[in-house]
Amino acid sequence: MFEIFFTTYYINTLMILDLHIHSCYSGDCSSPVDAILSYACNIGLNAIAICDHDTIEGSLEAQRLVEEGGFDIVVIPGIEVTTKRGHLLVLGTQEAFPKNRSPEEIIRMARAQDCMVVAPHPFKGYPRSLGDVADLDVDAVEVLNSRYILGWFNKKAEKMAQKLDLPMLGNSDAHFVEMVGRAYTKVDSKPSVDAIFKAIASGKTSVHGTRTPINIQIRQACGSLKRRYMSKIK
Lowest CB count within 10 Å: 59, 67, 171, 201, which one? Predict the structure, then answer.
């Protein structure tokens, strides 16, 4: 699915990243962490971040599985934090963040841990999103989120990132294993979390990918509604 090559002069690799994936630790997803890792390796991804809603458990499990030697891939720990204004991705954290705080407060907490802060799908109406981030100290903007119908919110995010001179990322926001890598980012970097962060910060990223099929998005929405209903009647 992806082409990977080595740049010997810089001793860097063209890394292919999907830094916004959901697992069974998110309430609207049932994807097992090991299945995500296996699929990501099979399609040629070099690094992933499992960013579940308001929990770090999926990332911690992924790190443990890689450390045990089962998968040859870089795992960047992450979380999708629900703030008062909208969702925020925090990459590089080993801890969960409180829900429903201001994005400014979450960003301050992330800075204390030397994390990378990304504005995901900033102009998507659902889930609630940050909108214009000119007033926020974010490190990058997700300008290609594969879960779209017409794609206008991605175009608006790209224009904003260009205006603010912020690095651009493409991510799948996958809620099904087979959608992992549907959108992705390429960047020249050594295969480590710190090196990837530095490479993204340089702004030399390129985004690629296509839309998650509509029938898959409907499946995810229906599954999410079913899980919410079941949790209420328990």
Answer: 67
pLDDT digits (tens, 9 = 90+) for 2-12: 444 333 344 57
CA torsion angle for 146, 148, 152, 153 (degrees, to 10)? -70
**Tokens linked to 200:** 């993204």
Fold of 13-233: TIM Barrel (3.20.20)
Show the tokens assigned to 129. Answer: 């999103």
Cβ atoms within 10 Å, residue 203? 13
Domain range annotation of the chain: 13-233
Mean pLDDT of 23-39: 96
DSSP the chain: -----EETTTTEEEEEEEEEE--TTSTT----HHHHHHHHHHHT-SEEEE--BT--HHHHHHHHHHHTTS--SEE--EEEEEBSSSEEEEES-SS---SSB-HHHHHHHHHHTT-EEEE-STT-SSS------TTS--SEEEEEES--SS-HHHHHHHHHHHHHT--EEEE--BSSGGGTTSEEEEEEE-SSHHHHHHHHHTT--EEEE-PPPHHHHHHHHHHHHHHHHHHHH-
Length of the chain measured in residues: 234
Rounded to two decimals, the pTM is 0.90
